[in-house]
Amino acid sequence: MSTELAVTAEELRQVLAASAFARIYNFKLHSFASGECTLEMPFQEAIERPGGIVSGSVFMTAADVAMWLAIMTRLGKDTLTVTAEMKTAFLSSARQEDVHCTAKILKLGKSLIYGVAECHNTSGKLLTHHTITYVRVER
To answer: Could you count the other beta carbons within 10 Å of the beta carbon of residue 95?
Structure first.
């Protein structure tokens, strides 16, 4: 896998800030490398479901956005890609705590991009595991 980055940290932060759907969750860029991105999702009451746990859909969104940015590290911020499939395993719950989600590209194909993402709490406990397929869209 190439180690050359197609974006800067500032460009990824700008993408997050400009994306209305991502702003809802207050994602913060934690770290990134070629084909990889980790987001921090600070806890907020708006993402809680009854019973005091973080809603499962929030983890799926975090995984999706982390993969979207991981793809940008290889293809640049102007390449259009969309989620084609995501499979999620919910392994544990989060309760009023920040979460980190790391996505990694497994295969960057000409039309399909395969990856995985995992969400952990700040103690390192694995909360979710995701397999994600993206498709490149021609403009």
So the answer is: 11
pLDDT in tens, 18-28: 999 999 999 99
Q: Tell me, yes or no, if the pTM score tops 0.70.
A: yes
**Predicted confidence (pLDDT) at residue 78 exceeds the cutoff of 50:** yes
Q: How far is CA 70 from the centre of its chain?
A: 8
For residue 118, the enclosing domain spans 9-136
Distance of CA 74 to the CA centre of its chain: 15
CATH of the domain at 130: 3.10.129.10
Residue 25 Ramachandran class (φ > 0 left, ψ -120 to 50 alpha, else beta): alpha
Confirm whether 2 is domain-assigned.
no
Total tally of structural domains belonging to the chain: 1
Mean pLDDT calculated for residue range 73-84:
96
Q: Is residue 60 part of a domain?
A: yes
CA dist 108 → 11, 73, 104, 112 (Å)? 21, 12, 11, 7
